[in-house]
Amino acid sequence: MIDKLYISQSLSDLIAKMDEDGVTYTRKMLEFYSEQYKSVREQSNGNTAVASIHDLIDECMQALVKKATDYTVSCQKGCSFCCYQRVDISDDEASLLVELAKLKGFEIDYQRLEKQLAAKDEKEFQQLRPRHRKCVFLQDGDCAVYEHRPSACRKLVVVSDPKNCDTVSNRGAKVGKLADLEAEVVTAAALNVRESGSMAEMILKLR
Ligand code: SF4
Fold it and tell me: What distance in Å separates the CA atoms of residue 51 and residue 122, rounded to the nearest whole number?
Protein backbone atom coordinates (compact mmCIF):
# COMPACT_ATOMS: atom_id res chain seq x y z
CA MET A 1 0.00 0.00 0.00
CA ILE A 2 1.35 3.40 -0.96
CA ASP A 3 0.23 5.02 2.29
CA LYS A 4 2.44 2.66 4.33
CA LEU A 5 5.59 3.65 2.45
CA TYR A 6 7.93 6.61 2.57
CA ILE A 7 6.60 9.22 0.16
CA SER A 8 7.56 12.86 -0.16
CA GLN A 9 5.05 15.69 0.20
CA SER A 10 5.32 16.30 -3.57
CA LEU A 11 4.41 12.69 -4.37
CA SER A 12 1.67 12.74 -1.80
CA ASP A 13 0.23 15.89 -3.46
CA LEU A 14 0.30 14.22 -6.88
CA ILE A 15 -1.40 11.07 -5.53
CA ALA A 16 -4.10 13.18 -3.84
CA LYS A 17 -5.20 14.43 -7.29
CA MET A 18 -5.37 10.93 -8.83
CA ASP A 19 -8.32 8.65 -9.41
CA GLU A 20 -8.16 4.96 -8.45
CA ASP A 21 -6.50 3.96 -11.73
CA GLY A 22 -3.83 6.61 -11.21
CA VAL A 23 -3.08 5.34 -7.72
CA THR A 24 -2.87 1.74 -8.99
CA TYR A 25 -0.52 2.83 -11.79
CA THR A 26 1.66 4.75 -9.31
CA ARG A 27 1.84 1.76 -6.95
CA LYS A 28 2.91 -0.53 -9.82
CA MET A 29 5.55 2.00 -10.89
CA LEU A 30 6.80 2.16 -7.29
CA GLU A 31 7.06 -1.65 -7.16
CA PHE A 32 8.83 -1.71 -10.53
CA TYR A 33 11.44 0.89 -9.55
CA SER A 34 11.96 -0.71 -6.12
CA GLU A 35 12.82 -4.02 -7.84
CA GLN A 36 15.05 -2.18 -10.33
CA TYR A 37 16.97 -0.49 -7.51
CA LYS A 38 17.41 -3.77 -5.62
CA SER A 39 18.62 -5.50 -8.77
CA VAL A 40 21.19 -2.80 -9.70
CA ARG A 41 22.32 -2.68 -6.05
CA GLU A 42 22.82 -6.47 -5.93
CA GLN A 43 24.71 -6.57 -9.21
CA SER A 44 26.98 -3.60 -8.52
CA ASN A 45 27.23 -1.32 -5.47
CA GLY A 46 25.57 1.65 -3.76
CA ASN A 47 27.33 4.32 -5.82
CA THR A 48 26.29 2.72 -9.12
CA ALA A 49 22.70 2.26 -7.93
CA VAL A 50 22.54 5.89 -6.78
CA ALA A 51 24.04 7.13 -10.07
CA SER A 52 21.45 5.17 -12.05
CA ILE A 53 18.52 6.81 -10.29
CA HIS A 54 20.13 10.25 -10.33
CA ASP A 55 20.51 10.01 -14.12
CA LEU A 56 16.89 8.95 -14.47
CA ILE A 57 15.64 11.79 -12.27
CA ASP A 58 17.69 14.30 -14.30
CA GLU A 59 16.18 12.96 -17.54
CA CYS A 60 12.65 13.21 -16.11
CA MET A 61 13.15 16.75 -14.84
CA GLN A 62 14.78 17.96 -18.07
CA ALA A 63 11.86 16.55 -20.09
CA LEU A 64 9.35 18.13 -17.72
CA VAL A 65 10.98 21.57 -17.90
CA LYS A 66 11.00 21.33 -21.71
CA LYS A 67 7.27 20.54 -21.71
CA ALA A 68 6.27 23.13 -19.10
CA THR A 69 6.50 26.08 -21.49
CA ASP A 70 4.02 28.15 -19.41
CA TYR A 71 6.53 28.32 -16.55
CA THR A 72 9.91 29.92 -16.07
CA VAL A 73 12.37 28.03 -13.92
CA SER A 74 13.75 30.26 -11.15
CA CYS A 75 16.55 27.94 -9.98
CA GLN A 76 20.00 29.16 -10.98
CA LYS A 77 23.60 28.95 -9.85
CA GLY A 78 24.19 31.00 -6.72
CA CYS A 79 20.61 30.68 -5.44
CA SER A 80 20.70 28.35 -2.46
CA PHE A 81 17.57 29.14 -0.41
CA CYS A 82 16.43 25.50 -0.80
CA CYS A 83 19.65 24.32 0.89
CA TYR A 84 18.27 25.45 4.27
CA GLN A 85 15.57 22.79 4.34
CA ARG A 86 15.50 19.26 5.66
CA VAL A 87 16.48 16.75 2.98
CA ASP A 88 15.78 13.02 3.22
CA ILE A 89 18.40 10.67 1.79
CA SER A 90 19.15 6.96 1.67
CA ASP A 91 22.11 5.24 3.31
CA ASP A 92 23.63 4.80 -0.17
CA GLU A 93 23.40 8.53 -0.81
CA ALA A 94 24.87 9.27 2.63
CA SER A 95 27.90 7.02 1.96
CA LEU A 96 28.48 8.70 -1.39
CA LEU A 97 28.29 12.19 0.15
CA VAL A 98 30.76 11.31 2.92
CA GLU A 99 33.12 9.80 0.33
CA LEU A 100 32.90 12.96 -1.80
CA ALA A 101 33.64 15.25 1.16
CA LYS A 102 36.81 13.23 1.80
CA LEU A 103 37.79 13.33 -1.87
CA LYS A 104 37.19 17.06 -2.11
CA GLY A 105 39.04 17.64 1.12
CA PHE A 106 36.46 19.44 3.23
CA GLU A 107 35.38 18.65 6.77
CA ILE A 108 31.73 17.82 7.33
CA ASP A 109 30.34 20.03 10.12
CA TYR A 110 29.13 17.26 12.46
CA GLN A 111 28.13 19.73 15.19
CA ARG A 112 25.72 21.37 12.78
CA LEU A 113 24.32 17.96 11.82
CA GLU A 114 23.75 17.20 15.51
CA LYS A 115 21.80 20.44 15.90
CA GLN A 116 19.75 19.53 12.82
CA LEU A 117 19.11 16.02 14.14
CA ALA A 118 17.87 17.42 17.46
CA ALA A 119 15.00 19.12 15.62
CA LYS A 120 12.20 16.57 16.04
CA ASP A 121 10.17 17.62 13.01
CA GLU A 122 10.04 20.04 10.10
CA LYS A 123 8.56 22.78 12.31
CA GLU A 124 11.45 22.56 14.79
CA PHE A 125 13.93 22.36 11.94
CA GLN A 126 12.61 25.62 10.49
CA GLN A 127 13.02 27.25 13.91
CA LEU A 128 16.78 26.63 13.90
CA ARG A 129 19.01 29.61 13.08
CA PRO A 130 19.79 29.74 9.33
CA ARG A 131 23.49 28.95 9.94
CA HIS A 132 22.42 25.79 11.77
CA ARG A 133 19.84 24.83 9.14
CA LYS A 134 22.30 25.28 6.26
CA CYS A 135 23.20 22.06 4.44
CA VAL A 136 26.70 20.92 5.38
CA PHE A 137 27.50 20.51 1.69
CA LEU A 138 26.76 24.15 0.88
CA GLN A 139 30.25 25.62 0.73
CA ASP A 140 30.77 29.32 -0.08
CA GLY A 141 27.25 29.56 -1.51
CA ASP A 142 27.62 26.58 -3.87
CA CYS A 143 26.73 22.92 -3.57
CA ALA A 144 30.10 21.18 -3.17
CA VAL A 145 28.60 17.87 -4.32
CA TYR A 146 26.39 19.23 -7.10
CA GLU A 147 27.04 16.43 -9.64
CA HIS A 148 26.13 13.86 -6.98
CA ARG A 149 23.53 15.82 -4.98
CA PRO A 150 20.74 13.66 -3.51
CA SER A 151 17.56 12.75 -5.39
CA ALA A 152 15.52 15.12 -3.20
CA CYS A 153 17.64 18.06 -4.43
CA ARG A 154 17.63 16.94 -8.10
CA LYS A 155 13.84 16.74 -8.38
CA LEU A 156 13.24 20.22 -6.96
CA VAL A 157 12.47 22.76 -9.69
CA VAL A 158 11.02 26.09 -8.55
CA VAL A 159 8.91 28.25 -10.86
CA SER A 160 7.82 30.99 -8.43
CA ASP A 161 9.71 34.15 -7.49
CA PRO A 162 13.05 33.03 -5.93
CA LYS A 163 12.36 35.49 -3.07
CA ASN A 164 9.55 33.18 -1.96
CA CYS A 165 12.13 30.48 -1.21
CA ASP A 166 13.79 32.73 1.37
CA THR A 167 12.51 31.23 4.62
CA VAL A 168 14.09 34.05 6.66
CA SER A 169 12.67 37.16 4.96
CA ASN A 170 9.60 35.52 3.42
CA ARG A 171 8.69 32.79 5.89
CA GLY A 172 5.50 31.05 4.80
CA ALA A 173 5.52 32.45 1.24
CA LYS A 174 4.08 30.04 -1.33
CA VAL A 175 6.71 28.31 -3.44
CA GLY A 176 5.61 27.00 -6.86
CA LYS A 177 7.36 23.79 -7.93
CA LEU A 178 7.21 21.51 -10.94
CA ALA A 179 6.71 17.88 -9.95
CA ASP A 180 7.26 14.85 -12.14
CA LEU A 181 5.52 11.62 -11.17
CA GLU A 182 8.28 9.32 -12.41
CA ALA A 183 11.04 11.34 -10.68
CA GLU A 184 9.02 11.29 -7.45
CA VAL A 185 8.39 7.55 -7.67
CA VAL A 186 12.01 6.71 -8.49
CA THR A 187 13.13 8.75 -5.48
CA ALA A 188 10.57 7.12 -3.19
CA ALA A 189 11.48 3.63 -4.45
CA ALA A 190 15.17 4.03 -3.53
CA LEU A 191 14.34 5.53 -0.14
CA ASN A 192 11.99 2.66 0.63
CA VAL A 193 14.32 -0.09 -0.52
CA ARG A 194 17.21 1.26 1.56
CA GLU A 195 17.47 2.62 5.09
CA SER A 196 16.52 6.30 4.84
CA GLY A 197 16.12 9.39 6.96
CA SER A 198 17.16 13.01 7.24
CA MET A 199 20.59 13.91 5.90
CA ALA A 200 21.70 14.65 9.49
CA GLU A 201 20.58 11.24 10.73
CA MET A 202 22.04 9.26 7.85
CA ILE A 203 25.42 11.01 7.81
CA LEU A 204 25.85 10.96 11.57
CA LYS A 205 25.32 7.18 11.47
CA LEU A 206 28.46 6.90 9.33
CA ARG A 207 30.72 8.91 11.62
S1 SF4 B 1 23.24 18.59 -1.19
FE2 SF4 B 1 23.71 20.44 -2.37
S3 SF4 B 1 21.79 20.97 -3.43
FE4 SF4 B 1 21.28 19.53 -1.78
S5 SF4 B 1 20.72 20.80 0.00
FE6 SF4 B 1 22.92 20.33 0.18
S7 SF4 B 1 24.01 22.03 -0.80
FE8 SF4 B 1 21.85 22.12 -1.47
Answer: 28
